[in-house]
Amino acid sequence: MTTSFLKQPNPDAALPDSQGRFGEFGGRFVPETLVAALDQLEEEYHKAKQDPEFQAELDVLLRDFVGRPSPLYFAKRLTEKCGGAQIWFKREDLNHTGAHKINSTIGQALLTLRMGKTRVIAETGAGQHGVATATACAHFGLPCIVYMGEEDVRRQAPNVRSMRSMGAEIRPVTTGSRTLRDAVNEAMRDWMGSVEDTHYILGSVVGPHPFPMIVRDFQAIIGRETIVQSQDRFGRLPDAVVACVGGGSNAAGMFFPFVAQTDVPLIGVEAGGYDDEPGHHASSLTYGKPGVLHGSFSYVLQDEDGQTDDVHSASAGLDYPGVGPEHSHWKKTGRVEYRSCRDDEALDTFDLIAKTEGILPALESSHAIAKGMEVASERGKDEIVVVCLSGRGDKDADEIQRLRSEQA
Amino acid sequence: MSAIDDLFAQLKSEGKKAFMPFITAGDPDVEFSSALLESLDEAGCHLAELGIPYSDPIADGPVIQASYTRALNKKIKLESILDMTAAITPKLKMPIVSMVSYAIIYRQGMDNYLKNAIASGISGAIVPDMPVDESAVFAEKCRALDFSLIQMITPTTDRDRAIEIAKQASGFIYYVSIAGITGERNELPPELIENLRWLKTQTDLPICVGFGISQPKHAVALKEVADGMIVGSAIVRRIASVEEDSESRQEVIDDVTEFAKEMMAAING
User: Fold this and answer.
1) CATH number of the domain at A30-64+101-215, please?
2) Which of A162, A230, A296, A390 is catalytic?
3) Which candidate in B29, B49, B184, B227 is catalytic?
4) Which of A36, A199, B5, B74 could form a disulfide with B1 if both were Cys (CB 3.0 to 4.6 A apart)?
5) pLDDT, tens digit, for every residue of A231-282?
6) Could you tell me which of A93, A100, A119, A269 has the C-alpha nearest to residue A200?
7) Alpha-carbon distance A315 to A121, whole Å?
8) How confident is the model at residue A2 (pLDDT cuts 50, 70, 90)?
9) To the nearest whole number, what is the mean pLDDT of chain B?
10) A101 is catalytic
């Protein structure tokens, strides 16, 4: 890949450190039972990274099975409508299974086989990661169990059907808020008793080290391709890059290769829900504080005792009270600016993109596009804003109709 | 010497093993927890583990999770738990150890948590989501205050690491009997006894076994190699059925206390 025009080497490329820390964030706050499995995963990942055969196998799968590279698409009518900078979409929605999640599940399934493990578990919120995991497992013939909050099983029914078609077993989670956070808890509990033969394919850049690093690295193909495509199309880097942040995997993948290019502003968009009251949103970086959740130290939405807050987002994939530790590091260092987008802005953006571009964006991605439009309208016509369109919105059509009828 | 060190020194001189019930603080309310602690103490339990309810306990099985959820649904606060222990601990012979997530300790601040816990009569902590790699700072603070930091060793811990953990731990070592979450098991793993025998050759700290221990036959099987046993879910399950009326409360307290006596008879009988 040609990256000679990149201005600076990446000073953060060495992160996380050997303790799994991105600055002060990250680490490994898990029961002792899981430590050996995390050590094994870290060791195997480092070996795989150095192994040309692993890289070659992954590259072929990403090309022929996933369909990479994903296009960089000019949203012409949307740009005209906003009247500012050109808006381009990085089309992760065109990947096999319709989202960026498969970039990581294929890589992690290969790691599963390398470790000699014979069973896979995963959590899912919107169901995109569940589908991507079920897909990778079907491809390699691995048994797959997906933990999914009961509330999400209801609002993401099409993805539940896809997972079952590919042979995955769905275990609805009925504890706590019955959403993504509880699905992570249940997957971790399963793993506590199954570490010997099971790999947990975690879906985002969250959780204990080495997951935030591994998932980021597998997702970084998004940013690397965007850099090459920008060079081909524009002969330079974009003027701003925007991505949505729940746990933060598509954003980490998009941002990481750009982090050293300090003149490219990076904007992460969190779920703003109804308003900024606790429980009404899922904006950990905007309204939360550093704390511990799901094995890592990062920004989190908690009460004064340290109990995790219930959160809300119209988008199941952003409905999470924590965020990846590297995002916390980028917030702290100021390298990434984080904004928050309300449910109704995201819903309006879904409608707008459907009608002006003929694309149904996922509700998660609609958050990024809404703020991408804001960023574009602040900039001149010769500037370029790239938005990560992380997934397709077919899965959301029923839920959007339901939300709209509630509003009516 | 913390109260826990004193306890094990005394048990050793008497040739006895420790029985440690686990209860959730504030399930169904702090008044009940307080009355139950008093009853267990009178029955002769050696130490109590007090679970501080946490919203996301990944090491816990359904019984303890449900108990935490019940307490949290009633808006239990750390402050009211510590007020309860401050009032009850002067009346108890047995020391109290808190089972508490690092999420809760971090939010209070380590120093603040330790100050308040010690002022409330708590003698030590088990922090299930703070493995030895992350515990150096907290362990140092605990040592300076003579507050025991009980660390866990599990079947997935390799032997070199187990030795490292034993060096950092104080009070006693919590040996987790199975790779998995808390909850009652009928059978204990066959390699458990051998693992405990090996660990005893590596440390002077008492070794107590928890996770899955729920029947008198487990106590009989383990008493030769363990210095104590921890029973959680088998007790918390009995509390799940408690009703608001005082008659039901007394029945549950009697039932749990009776069970504790059976276990103690199996351990030291």
Assistant:
1) 3.40.50.1100
2) A390
3) B49
4) B5
5) 999 999 999 999 999 999 999 999 999 999 999 999 999 999 999 999 999 9
6) A119
7) 23
8) very low
9) 96
10) yes
In A48-205 the beta strands, taken as DSSP E runs, fall at 72-74, 86-91, 119-124, 144-149, 169-173, 198-200
Q: A117 an active-site residue?
A: no
Nearest to A305 among B102, B107, B134 (CB): B107
Angle at B131 (CA atoms; ends A246, A190), nearest 5 degrees? 60
Which H helix or E strand runs over A267?
A: strand A266-273
Helix residue ranges, H only, B89-227: 102-108, 110-119, 136-144, 159-168, 192-200, 216-222
Q: Which residue of B has its CA nearest to A304?
A: B107
Q: How many residues does chain B have?
A: 269
Chain B, nearest residue to A196 by Cα? B156
- According to CATH, the topology of domain B3-268 is TIM Barrel (3.20.20)
Binary contact (B102, A29; C-beta < 8 A): yes
How many contacts (CB atoms, under 8 Å) link A and B?
Answer: 116
Is B254 assigned a catalytic role?
no
E strands along chain B, which residues? 18-24, 48-51, 96-99, 124-126, 148-153, 173-176, 207-210, 228-231
Taking an 8 Å cut-off on Cβ atoms, the answer to whether A35 and B161 are in contact is yes
**Contact yes or no for B130 and A192 at CB 8 A:** no
Q: Is A392 helix (H, G, I), strand (E, B) or coil?
A: strand
Nearest CB to B157: which of A27, A32, A295? A32
Half-sphere exposure for B225 (CA within 13 Å, toward CB): 17
Specify the fold of A67-98+220-407: Rossmann fold (3.40.50)
ipTM: 0.96
Range A317-340 average pLDDT: 97
CA-angle at B225, arms to B49 and B165, nearest 5°:
60
Q: Which of A21, A24, A32, A35 to mutate to test the interface with B (most CBs of B within 10 A)?
A: A32
Note if the pTM is more than 0.90: yes
Chain B contact set for A176 (CB, 8 A):
55-56, 69
How far apart are the C-alpha atoms of A252 and A327, rounded to whole Å? 7
All residues of chain A having their beta carbon less than 8 Å from the beta carbon of residue B110 are none
- Cα A74 from Cα A123, distance rounded (Å): 34
Encode pLDDT of B72-115 as tens digits. 999 999 999 999 999 999 999 999 999 999 999 999 999 999 99
The answer to whether the Cβ–Cβ distance between A196 and B128 falls below 8 Å is no
Locate CATH 3.40.50.1100 in chain A.
30-64+101-215, 67-98+220-407
Q: Is residue A361 predicted with pLDDT exceeding 60?
A: yes
